[in-house]
Amino acid sequence: SVIPANIINTIIVTTNATNVIPFSFFCSSIFTYFSFLFLIVISGWFIQRGSFCLVAAVDSIIEKKLTKILMIFGVALFSGAILMFFQIPIVYSPSRNDFLLALLGAVVFGFGATLNSGCFFGTLTKLFKGNIHMLFSLAGIISTSILAPPLVLEKKLNVSYPSFYYYFILLLIVTILIFFQKHDKKYNYFMNLIIPGLVFGIMNSSTFGWSLSQLIINIWFFFNNNILFVKMQVLEFFAFLLGMWIYHLKYNQFKWKKLDSLKATKHFFAGIIMALGARMMGGGNDNLLFQKLPSITFEVFMLMYVLVLSIYITQTVLLPKVS
Question: Would you give the end-to-end CA distance of the chain in angstroms?
């Protein structure tokens, strides 16, 4: 069974795009299929190497370093650019009530992610560094995903798509990103941007709405409606984790932290809070970056701003000593 197409995180608006290349064209052989999974493994490697996490990026902003936040935005926009070659692009344009709910969800998610010391991506990257407490974060996320149903349904309308501004902002971000790096690190940051952006763009094309948030939504349908996971999404997810694991095997950076019961409890409730915030937003920060941000609408910029602001205030005012 396939997850219904009408349950995709938030309000999504499609366009009358033409000359769209069907993704099936690129999957005409088993060789291509496994090559695609191999690319996902490589992407997991680069995500792990770049410590792709919005909480860490905001922490860098506090230290007056913009590299991580620019790289995250650059990966998201480049992913959207790739997506446009394969299917009709999406535009985030919610109703007033859904938008207010999403803004509240951004505040909740930002608080939970900071308490957890990592967003959805950060949870995985730290887990593969040996932070055993992130297992409790995942337990909180999964348990909440089973009990709390998705709150926002998809709606479709026909609107224009700002492709020119899309590419202009993408080019500006990449330029700024490369310009601010030390000479010996420019190549590394460039690869951390290009490889994940390319692979995530293809993944979003091959399985509609792919993201960690979408898999979390699918958990609810699996346990409550007996709807099976999309097989390709599951394969992509484990290929992504494999890349992260191989990175630490190569560099011998994996080491389990000593289990602390208080930290384990903190991370479990942080996972619950993150999952609830993601439900209200219609998806976590990964969904916001890879599904909504490329549409470059006022609503998505406001949602992104509120999420970053929530993390910033939590880090500097509410929980300044959380690690």
Answer: 41
